[in-house]
Amino acid sequence: NITAAAGFSVATALSGAGTLTQAAGSDLLLGGTTTINSLIATAATNLVTYNGTATQTILGTSYEDLRIFKATNDANLGANTFIGNQITMTTGDVNLGAFNLTLDTDASFSGGSATSYVNADLGTAGRLIVNYSATGSRTFPIGDATGTGFSPLTINITSGTFAGGANLTLGVDN
């Protein structure tokens, strides 16, 4: 088991049978394959960035902040994944495949474009799930792998009752 302090960067492979715990307020850059048993990245102001040049698998865990910053290729979810605060889409898509990407009630997207969006294709089992606790407008940089690809969606909920577990489940079929 390892605790990673501020500015921890893995350029090639991160593997092993233990747990990597990201210290509070730190940045973790993952440039290669990641096959560790567990990643704990939920402390306040933690940021995990997937920035490898090859296709990467995003560890299925809970992230406070997640950034996709890939000059080439995309990132695929390796299991169900939860975002507590923000997901930043800079370059490269996130392909859901068979897994769900869930955003907490206060979590948001930053960025998103035709070259960086969540591939929530209805032809696969994975969905973008957005938890809600109040009214408001939110924009989602989603799309699918066929048709027009990037299809951003803005949803404005103007009223409703938000008992525990209220959410929207999103997918795209162009």
Would you mind describing this structure in some detail?
This protein is mostly beta strands and 174 residues long. The chain is built from no helices and 19 strands. The strands form 4 sheets. Strands 2, 4, 6, 8, 10, 12, 13, 15 and 19 form a 9-stranded mixed β-sheet that branches. A 5-stranded parallel β-sheet has the order 7-9-11-14-17, with no helix packed on it. It is globular, with a radius of gyration of 16 Å. It starts with a strand and ends with a strand. The model has no long low-confidence stretch (mean pLDDT 92).
Q: Could you describe the largest sheet, including whether it forms a barrel? A: 9 strands, mixed
How far is the N terminus from the C terminus?
Answer: 45 Å
Rg on CA atoms, Å? 16 Å
What general form does the structure show? globular
Number of helices: 0
Q: Report the mean per-residue pLDDT as an integer.
A: 92
Structural class of the secondary structure composition? Answer: mainly beta
Describe this structure in a few short sentences.
This protein has no helices and 19 strands. With 174 residues, it is mostly beta strands. It is globular, with a radius of gyration of 16 Å.
